Amino acid sequence: MASDASRPRTSAPQPSAWHAPTSGRTIAAGALMVFAGAMAIFEGIAALARDDLFVVTRHYVFEFSVTGWGWVHLIVGIALVLAGCAVFTGALWARFFGVAVAGLAAIANFLWVPYYPWWALTLVVVNLFVVWALCTGMHREADASMTP
Q1: What distance in Å separates the CA atoms of residue 125 and residue 18, rounded to the nearest whole number?
Q2: What is the pLDDT of residue 119?
């Protein structure tokens, strides 16, 4: 009994400042953001370099010039790469910025469907997965670091 009294009592473990924001889903989301951003940059460059590279369907609700879409994809792609790199730092603002930029990228790729359907839908799915991973990752990772 005397040995129990000499042991220091510890309270519930606190989450690690490094582990919770930069593990598991967050790293995967950051990597996918860098990938999706690079692909959006390539789409933007391709649309700016050659307008006739993409086949445009007629009578689509969102009829914009391919050059305009090139600029949109280029800007969103750069923002995605920057947000993906920021997510690797583990900052909370980077998660919010990442969710916003990935959401905008998903919308832009959805509107890009008439120009390049399969690839646009693939990037919509990737961006929606990034939004899901950034929104759900923090709570589960923080809970996991609380258990001994």
Answers
A1: 29
A2: 87
